[in-house]
Design brief:
Elements lengths: L1 H14 L7 H5 L5 H15 L4 H12 L5 H14 L22 E4 L18 E6 L5 E5 L5 E5 L3 E3 L11 E2 L4 H10 L5 E6 L6 E7 L8 E9 L5 E2 L9 H10 L10 E2 L25 E9 L4 E7 L3 E8 L6 H11 L10 E5 L5 E6 L6 H7 L6 H20 L12 E3 L5 E3 L11 H4 L13 H6 L4 H16 L11 H9 L12 H9 L11 H14 L1
Parallel strand pairs: 6-7, 7-11
Antiparallel strand pairs: 1-2, 1-5, 2-3, 3-4, 7-8, 8-9, 9-10, 12-13, 13-14, 14-16, 15-16, 17-18
Helix pairs in contact: 3-4, 4-5, 10-13, 10-16, 13-15
The structure holds adenosine-5'-diphosphate (ADP).
The site of adenosine-5'-diphosphate has 18 residues, from strand 12 and strand 16.
Organism: Taeniopygia guttata
Protein name: Tyrosine-protein kinase
GO biological process, one term: positive regulation of transcription by RNA polymerase II
Length: about 550
């Protein structure tokens, strides 16, 4: 039957003298309904303004595949009526010609501004149809108004309910510390983000809350787990068949969480078009999201800048000069260092591994390095303040000790002070990646002999206990308001003094109990020195006494 009707239709159209417009081709494939319609309409597009009647006939058949001989007849009747009216019909909407139902649909992750006539601009959260995967980086797409053009493929994501990237609360490319940074930017009760966990295949829900009563608020990280039936949960009694359903439920009910999820903290999720296709490692940072603003200082590795991440968040960006660092070893270690997170440690946010020079991005500390801070405020800092600075450093070091991480270059110059005058330990572990003989060799001019324990300057034997020695010297720097230990003595003289059992004198701002604490750090044998855990308790007791 079909065949017969097709044939009739085609013959009928040909009878109208349209064979010159290509219908013969259509006639060759009467079995294929899809092909038949497609070709016929394509030809009609060119015909629209020339022969409106033919359009009418074809339009009818296009929308009514089960076309009958009677309908063709009716069309012909109508055509004859129209012959008396010379008003042209309006052009057909493009949708009438193409079948988009099976084309992939995507949603824009962020705005994209067309940079040439071939580009199609994108608006965040709007839907687009993908017409052609033009090349691995650029796709041809169509917007809802029928405009077509090329788009960068990493600006869009499949528009499916199950695709997490379509949700504002999902940030694929951030790690724990970056999540904390985002949540603390506008610390609102119940602000939350869902990110890929450091454990492969798992998701983590990170949220901000003041419910526990802490002044700065807490960031809590919950793994989103699956039970044996594959159902998702954060709190075991509340199970869901998908993560979006879980989030939606907890947006209305705390149900086991510290508070309900109130504010999704979005990140725009886009990498730049220039970097389309570059795969950033999970913990890496995208350099196009970083802006260098002004120089803060110069260090062992290169210039340090104040910068912005994602246009809003202030960060410090250390640029690493060519040849100044064992980069590959550092990049490997940075993955671990980023997991170290404590209020008294300068947080490492990430490293731009695909960028030269290498960028090391850390928490920005408004008041700069502790040594300069002390020197600039000589005579203005009370003993209590000096003690609380030592306490800050000790707490950060206690965390490193607990995690088996050795600093190797603890000194006032390697601590930083933030806007709230909190002192934090910086540059932990970095000494291992310095390429500079003067710094590495214990006889080199830059080797920090004055902060080093005997086992370090003799045998380079580092431990948390050698960090404790350095901490004693740092306490001395704090209580002298930034004096140079052993003043103008050379490194060789310092080694001789220490080996003879001499130690740094008591600064006049240090009470006897305070001096006893620093002195205890300078025991010749590592085992004779206190741990940071013990020092934290001792310093706390001292603060409470004053
Ligand atoms: P390095 O340890 O590589 O020798 P530093 O970390 O000491 O270099 O950086 C040099 C200077 O840059 C510091 O003295 C300080 O003034 C500034 N600086 C470094 N990191 C930060 C930061 N996170 N926030 C603010 N200033 C910083």
């Amino acid at each position: 039957m079909w065949k017969f009707k097709d044939t009739v239709l085609c013959i009928s159209l040909m009878k109208e003298g349209m064979d010159s417009h290509g219908y013969v081709d259509v006639y060759r494939y009467p079995h294929s309904h899809k092909c038949f319609m497609f070709f016929k309409i394509r030809e009609m597009r060119t015909k629209v303004n020339l022969d409106p009647d033919a359009v009418l006939a074809t339009q009818y058949s296009a929308s009514q595949p089960d076309v009958s001989y009677e309908s063709i007849w009716k069309c012909e009747q109508r055509k004859r009526q129209l012959q008396f009216k010379d008003k042209p019909l309006p052009p057909l909407p493009p949708e009438a010609f193409e079948d988009y139902t099976n084309k992939p649909r995507v949603i824009a992750l962020c705005d994209f501004f067309a940079r040439g006539p071939l580009d199609l601009p994108l608006k965040k959260s709007e839907e687009y149809i993908i017409l052609e995967k033009y090349d691995p980086l650029w796709w041809r797409a169509r917007d809802r108004h029928g405009n077509e053009g090329l788009i960068p493929r990493n600006y869009v994501t499949e528009n499916k309910k199950s695709n997490l990237e379509t949700y504002k609360w999902y940030c694929r490319n951030i790690n724990r510390s970056q999540a904390e940074l985002l949540l603390r930017q506008k610390p609102k009760e119940g602000a939350f983000v869902v990110r890929d966990s450091s454990r492969q295949g798992l998701l983590t829900l990170s949220m901000y809350s003041r419910a526990k009563g802490s002044h700065n608020g807490d960031i809590l990280h919950y793994h989103i787990k699956q039970n044996h039936l594959g159902l998702y949960y954060v709190a075991e009694n509340y199970l869901f068949s998908s993560v979006p359903e879980l989030i939606e439920y907890h947006q209305h009910n705390a149900a086991g969480l510290i508070t309900r999820l109130r504010y999704p903290v979005g990140s725009d999720g886009c990498t730049s078009a220039e970097n389309t296709g570059l795969s950033y490692e999970e913990w890496g940072l995208n350099p196009s999201e970083l802006l260098l603003l002004k120089e803060l200082g110069r260090g062992q590795f290169g210039v340090v800048y104040l910068g912005k991440w994602k246009e809003t968040i202030k960060v410090a960006i250390k640029t690493i000069n060519e040849g100044a660092m064992s980069e590959d070893d550092f990049i490997e270690e940075a993955k671990l260092m980023m997991k170290l997170s404590h209020p008294k440690l300068v947080q490492l946010y990430g490293v731009c591994t695909h960028h030269k020079p290498l960028y090391v991005v850390t928490e920005f500390m408004e008041n700069g390095c502790l040594l300069n801070y002390l020197r600039q405020r000589r005579g203005k800092l009370s003993r209590d303040v000096l003690l609380s600075m030592c306490q800050d450093v000790c707490e950060g070091m206690e965390y490193l000790e607990r995690n088996g991480f050795i600093h190797r270059d603890l000194a006032a110059r390697n601590c930083l002070v933030n806007v709230e005058h909190v002192v934090k330990v910086s540059d932990f572990g970095m000494a291992r990646y310095v390429i500079d003989d003067q710094y590495i060799s214990s006889s080199g001019a830059k080797f920090p002999v004055k902060w080093s324990s005997p086992e370090v300057f003799h045998f380079k034997k580092y431990s948390s206990k050698s960090d404790v020695w350095s901490f004693g010297v740092l306490m001395w720097e704090v209580f002298t308001e930034g004096k140079m230990p052993f003043e103008t003595k050379s490194n060789a003289e310092v080694v001789r003094e220490i080996s003879q059992g001499n130690r740094l004198y008591r600064p006049h701002l240090a009470s006897l109990p305070v001096y006893k604490v620093m002195y205890s750090c300078w025991h010749e044998k590592p085992e004779g020195r206190p741990t940071f855990a013990e020092l934290t308790v001792t310093l706390r007791d001292l603060t409470e006494m004053t």
